[in-house]
Specification:
Distance between the termini: 54 Å
Number of helices: 9
Order of helices and strands: EEEEEEEEEEEEEEHHHHEHEHEHEHEH
Oligomer: single chain
Strand order of the largest sheet: 1-3-5-7-9-11-13-14
Radius of gyration: 23 Å
Shape: elongated
Number of strands: 19
């Protein structure tokens, strides 16, 4: 905390302190980490917090204005009231319990936005979301919902990336932001989002296609993303047979799953887990998620419907018939 009382306006850690560096930093100060912190870097800080190194555990927690991560840390921006932007690796946890604005442009292993109540915006889907209840979520992997924000973030990243190993470039980037750089970044981003309120309050959706036939899976992905602009889609060609494998494969966030019945590279039913079994598992764990079954013919339709599927279509149908089924759930 002694750093906060210094007359200097920018501090740098190049060492390996165990905890609490840049704690309670005033709004006119900047804390830069190029070293390794055990935990609590920039805790409760009102200034600008930048991590180029290893931020340890709980970096920028309960911060008030802006945290920029270009390095790595575990649990960034827990409880943050301001803006947290991850360009690097946030490990497990990004913006948990945060009422602020959490933006992911990098890697997040899991638990993005757990228990958060603010705005969650991700330009790269994390491996898994946490228990998101009250937050407003925008999935924007294709950069179609918030182009102004993406442009701002790209410029911000370019300026501050130059400062990773160049003090003069870092000073120049900070000076451009004025006397309270953290507050300036926060206000800029808040202003962009205020002008795009309808987008932020209207969630972009995530679809998952499960089919061991890569051609069919990729074709459906293309059809979904070209037809429905508010959807991102990913394809799974391999499905594990054990419960833990299913959990780690399917617990990451999606809104709609389209699942084939026969999921075996040799086309032999019941050799492994089938689409109806996966449907039943999803509906037990995540009843709010929509599941659409599919197969080469009608013979597995009853299996899907008994398992709780919301709809079914035949892969060999006319593409227009498939689109009609998808339209009912993708809300064209």
């Amino acid at each position: 905390k002694g750093l906060s009382d210094s007359a200097l306006d920018m501090f740098e850690n190049c060492g390996n302190p165990p905890w609490r560096v840049g704690h309670d930093l005033p709004s006119n100060k900047v804390f830069v980490n190029r070293g390794k912190i055990g935990r609590y870097g920039g805790e409760f800080a009102k200034g600008l917090i930048i991590n180029y190194g290893d931020g340890g555990i709980l970096f920028g927690d309960h911060s008030k204005n802006a945290v920029l991560n270009f390095g790595r840390a575990v649990c960034i921006g827990d409880g943050a009231e301001g803006v947290v932007v991850n360009f690097g690796d946030s490990g497990h946890g990004l913006g948990q319990s945060s009422p602020g604005i959490i933006i992911n442009c990098g890697r997040c292993e899991n638990l993005m936005g757990r228990y958060s109540k603010g705005k969650l915006i991700t330009f790269k889907s994390p491996s898994g979301f946490g228990d998101i209840r009250d937050a407003k979520l925008v999935l924007d992997e294709r950069n179609i919902a918030l182009p102004e924000l993406k442009e701002y973030l790209d410029k911000l990243k370019l300026k501050f990336e130059k400062g990773r190993n160049d003090d003069n470039a870092l000073r120049e980037a900070v000076d451009e932001l004025g006397e309270e750089p953290g507050k300036k970044i926060r206000r800029d981003i808040e202003s962009i989002l205020e002008e795009n309120t309808s987008v932020v309050s209207t969630k972009l959706y995530s679809a998952l296609v499960i089919d061991d036939d890569k051609y069919i899976g990729d074709k459906l992905k293309t059809q979904i993303e070209e037809t429905y602009e508010n959807f991102n889609c990913r394809v799974l060609n391999k499905i594990p047979n054990d419960v833990m494998g299913l959990w780690f494969t399917l617990s990451p966030h999606f809104d709609i799953a389209i699942i084939d019945f026969v999921l075996d590279p040799y086309g032999i039913p019941n050799r492994g887990v089938n689409g109806a079994q996966i449907t039943s598992w999803i509906k037990e764990q995540f009843p709010e998620r929509t599941v659409i079954g599919m197969s080469d013919g009608e013979k597995y339709k009853k299996d899907f419907m008994r398992a709780g599927a919301d709809a079914f279509f035949c892969k060999l149908e006319n593409p227009k018939e498939i689109s009609r089924t998808l339209d009912d759930f993708f809300g064209r």
